[in-house]
Structures are given as C-alpha cells and as structure tokens.
Amino acid sequence: MVKSTVRFPEPVVEEIESLVDEGQFESKSEFYRFSADYVLSRTLDEYDPSTIDYDAIEAEVIPETERKLGGDDGETGEPPFFDSVAFVRKLALRGRFSDAEDFIDHQYVPGDRHAVLLEELLRLYREDAAGDEPAAVEGEGRRPRQGSETN
To answer: Which of 12, 15, 92, 102 could pair with 8 as two cysteines, CB 3.0-4.6 Å apart?
Structure first.
C-alpha cells in the first residue's frame, strides 16, 4: 500500500473517530480506505473495490435503502418525488420552513438525492424570503414582490 497524507477539517475527523469508537469501523484507516473505494466504485463503472471485506462493510454501514437513493417506483416507501416538491414548495411559500424541513427529514434518508434536491429547493425559497421587504417570518405567508401583483 501507498501512504498518503490528507488534511481534513477537525469536525470531519471527530465524526470519523466517533464512528470508530462506536465500532462501525475498526480504525480510521479502514474508514478512509472504504470511503475512497466506495466513491470510486460509484464514480467509475469498471472500478473494483480492494478494501478487505468491502461488501460486508458496505452492507453494515450503508443500509440498502440508502444505496438505492430514492426513486418513485414505490419500493422505497417514499412519496413520489414531484408530490414532495409540490408540498415543500407550498410550505416554503407560506413561510413554514421548519415544517418543510421536518417533512424532508421524515420522508427521506439522509443523503438521498431527492432529499438533497428538496433541501436545495428549500434553501432557495428561504433566500428568496429573506430578500423580501419586510422579511418573511416563520409561520406567516409571503408577501408578493413589488410589481408582481395582478389587478
């Protein structure tokens, strides 16, 4: 094996150390090797992971529901994605950002591509609301921008 030095932010190292302490990984080195193999196997079609017991670690650390990354086929137990978009949009337009966050957190696993997109959509609505004068308040409806009202 080749030794390589990589610098990580302190919070990242602390999270990795907690995973090792909890027994998810035998060591930080195993975490780093597995992580690199995992990303490469998802990025490159022909990449074959070389970490010892890679499949066993993957099955233990990344549950099947997270590996599927959502979908509208009914197998994941998640609502159809476009229904989720409409619901998050409705809550965001009403300034109910916490309710939208709760919906995303309860309907999707962390890291799910649909959850990431919904969170990004919510971030855009939140930024838009922050730019309104006066600023939208949590729980109150949003006011139309000047010039956007119809007669």
So the answer is: 12
Say how far residue 144 (Cα) sits from the centre of its chain.
Answer: 30
Encode pLDDT of 61-73 as tens digits. Answer: 877 654 444 444 4
Residue 133 lies in a domain: yes
Please count the residues of the chain.
Answer: 151
Please check whether residues 90 and 133 belong to one and the same domain: yes
C-alpha neighbours within 13 Å on the C-beta side of residue 23: 0
Of the candidates 141, 95, 89, 96, which has an alpha carbon nearest to the alpha carbon of residue 120? 89
**pLDDT tens, residue by residue, 43-93:** 888 888 888 888 888 888 877 654 444 444 455 566 788 888 989 999 999
Q: Read off the tokens for 61.
A: 């650390």
Which residue reads 């949003």 in tokens? 142
Q: Which domain holds residue 78?
A: 70-145
